[in-house]
Amino acid sequence: MEDVRNVAIVGSGPAGLTAAIYLSRADLKPLVFAGVPWGGQLMLTTDVENYPGFVDGILGPDLMDKFRKQAERFGAEIINENVSAVDFKKKPFKITADGKDYLVKSVLIATGAETKWLGLPNEQRLIGHGVSSCAPCDAFFFRDKKVVVVGGGDSAMEEALVLSKFATEVTIIHRRDEFRASKIMADRAKANSKIKFLLNSEIVDVLGKDKLEGVKVKNKDGSTQDLAVDGMFLAIGHLPVTGVFKGQIELDEKDYIVRKTFGSGPQSFKMATSVEGVFVAGDVHDVSYKQAVTAAGYGCQAALEVERWLEM
Ligand code: NAP
């Protein structure tokens, strides 16, 4: 008979690797499909100063390396491959990676969500050098500086409000003249004297050699202008990494995994999904917080539930 593993974890960001630490310490020998590249969004950041326990901050990739080594220390088996297919329609569940099938009793999905970028070549080059997608993480580095925020949704308003505590001037650049943001959030941003708006405008280039020095903005009438700024914060949405789960599990209208509660009372499973035995953790289901520490917290909760579910 083929070997059936207890649990597969798909994803190797803070949620997936925290789950791997808990499940390996529970002696369940988790199989982690780390993906290529592994490590999630923190691999794209430089200094992380809001992850508890690191008084002087830590580089994002170094933090993920510590997560990974801690999981491996307790016996998590990490496979550096992308999952190419899953079959959740019958048990044991089947996961395919690099042309090989793996049978598992339970699955914990922690594939995360990718930041939507504008897709400009210089933008990618300057990520971590003035270009960011996380104001709560990086606002502190922009004390007394000028920044722009791109987007017109709640995230853009929230990022601008966070940045206004540090920066001297925050300009929200939005491609339309109407906001997608809720009225209350837009009103809050409008009431802040440090926040300005540049509407009907799009960023067409990111300026600066080793660090961001400005952005080129194209207005609706076709004219362009260069704005001298030190920071550019993207708030144009996220894309959950769920392509491989389509048709296998319930996703919402934006392709995030729908988290379900299974059972009732204190013994219920709160990190469950539409398929019993498949659990979810981290940004792949979370549109609200999207922090490394919240993802790690979700990973811990989901792991404890997997452990309990396997004992039923
Ligand atoms: P969102 O609501 O989808 O808004 C994305 C914004 O980015 C839109 O204004 C969109 O413009 C713009 N955009 C998208 N692609 C673009 C591109 N290529 N170039 C320029 N602009 C582009 O995303 P979100 O703001 O991240 O919010 C996601 C969800 O989380 C929402 O449900 C939101 O309510 C929620 N959220 C809530 C809070 C809160 O309540 N505190 C905070 C953050 C997020 P268009 O408007 O022209 O499409």
Task: Describe this protein's structure.
- The chain is an alpha/beta fold and 312 residues long.
- It folds into 2 domains: 4-114 and 238-310, FAD/NAD(P)-binding domain (3-Layer(bba) Sandwich), CATH 3.50.50.60; 117-234, FAD/NAD(P)-binding domain, CATH 3.50.50.60.
- Helix content is 23%, strand content 29%.
- It has 7 helices and 21 strands.
- The chain has helices at 14-25, 60-73, 121-125, 135-138, 154-163, 183-190, 292-311; strands spanning 4-10, 31-33, 47-48, 58-59, 77-79, 83-87, 93-97, 100-109, 113-115, 131-132, 146-150, 169-173, 195-198, 201-207, 214-219, 224-228, 231-234, 238-240, 260-262, 269-272, 278-280.
- Strands 1, 2, 5, 6, 7, 8 and 21 form a 7-stranded mixed sheet that branches. A 5-stranded parallel sheet has the order 10-17-11-12-13, with helices on one face.
- It is elongated and about 65 Å long.
- The chain starts with a strand and ends with a helix.
- NADP nicotinamide-adenine-dinucleotide phosphate (NAP) is lined by residues 118, 150-156, 158, 175-176, 180, 202, 235-237, 287.
